[in-house]
Specification:
23% strand; 2 domains; alpha/beta
């Protein structure tokens, strides 16, 4: 049995989802010869740690009852540097301006020879090349499937399942909030403003939804795909971005009358990166509704491969983190 001593740095919705999934899949992991021993959990207020393993169920209860998992005034960064363990699961909030604490955490993990699995887009958007070099220099594994499509596989699909295929381009819907808003605007013949308010009430959109509706989130995901799958040295500034804020019910209805829907589509290839509302034929595989994500991978040998799934949600995102963890350590 291989024991993987692990920290969960960031214990918001996704970090808690990871804890739930690790509890749920404990026996399954053991059937693969893997024991994941979480030795530390940290949130913005502090941490709890135990070299012999923390009680994840108690961590979840404490977080929900008190708002923090903290029993000690230690940061995630301090735990990464001080505590002996193999894997950092980095699930702190995304910051695309500076990389935030996530960037510091990943740098520290590689400096101390640890592997990293993350859902955090910010550091990857800003410092992808640097982080890959740091991981390589340290001999560390670095996986980030959860940063792009949540439960929907894109990076691992291309790198593993479609290995040997030249990928010509990828296009799709990579933001569930925008997809929900556009779908509901068409269904209800309602304004962008009204459906945005509805989506915020339901918790689908954030209190400040600009990151989603202006196309920023989709653009960040394209940057990660461009660098990870096409070998480009892209940044956010390389993406042409148009959001959905100016889409009207009339435009959606006119498109429908002509056999189309309007979707916020992200496209990436070696020729460039673009996010913009596009007309999509109603029966096209990209014409999914609600909060679903979808990606079509155009390959040299296999043609177009399309995958659809939930691009967000704590358990869904945690499923991609679990997949990355298994991929790293089952290979060893």
């Amino acid at each position: 049995m291989k024991t993987i001593r692990t920290s969960i740095i960031g214990f918001g919705a996704i970090g808690q989802g990871v804890a739930e999934v690790l509890l749920l899949k404990k026996e399954y992991l053991r059937s693969l010869g893997l024991e994941v021993r979480v030795v530390a959990v940290a949130d913005s207020k502090g941490a709890t740690f135990n070299p012999n393993g923390v009680d994840l169920a108690k961590c979840l209860v404490r977080k929900r009852e008190t708002g923090t998992v903290a029993l000690e005034k230690l940061s995630g960064l301090e735990l990464i540097k001080r505590l002996d363990h193999e894997l950092v699961i980095e699930t702190t909030p995304t910051n695309i301006e500076t990389g935030g604490v996530g960037l510091q955490n990943m740098r520290a993990a590689f400096e101390t020879g640890k592997d990293v699995v993350t859902s955090n887009k910010g550091p990857l958007t800003l410092k992808y090349g640097e982080l890959q070099e740091a991981a390589k220099a340290a001999g560390s594994k670095f996986r980030f499937e959860a940063s792009v499509g949540g439960a929907m596989p894109i990076i691992n699909l291309v790198n593993e399942v479609l290995a040997g295929n030249e990928v010509k381009g990828i296009k799709g819907i990579l933001n569930g909030t925008c997809n929900y808003i556009l779908s509901r605007m068409l269904e209800e013949k309602a304004s962008y403003k009204d459906i945005l308010a509805e989506s915020m009430e339901l918790g689908i959109a954030e209190t400040d939804p600009s990151y989603d509706v202006e196309g920023i989130d989709t653009a960040c995901k394209l940057v990660i795909l461009a660098n990870a799958l096409f070998g480009l040295d892209a940044t956010y500034n390389d993406v042409e971005v148009t959001g959905i804020t100016k889409i009207t019910p009339d435009a959606l209805e006119m498109a429908q009358e002509n056999g189309y829907v309007i979707k916020l589509i992200g496209e990436v290839s070696r020729k460039g990166l673009q996010v913009a509302p596009r007309l999509v034929p109603i029966k096209h595989p990209l014409a999914v509704g609600g909060t679903l994500n979808v990606a079509s991978v155009d390959t040299e040998l296999a043609g177009e491969i399309t995958v659809t799934g939930k691009g967000a949600g704590p358990i869904e995102t945690a499923s991609a983190i679990l997949s990355d963890l298994i991929s790293i350590y089952r290979e060893c």
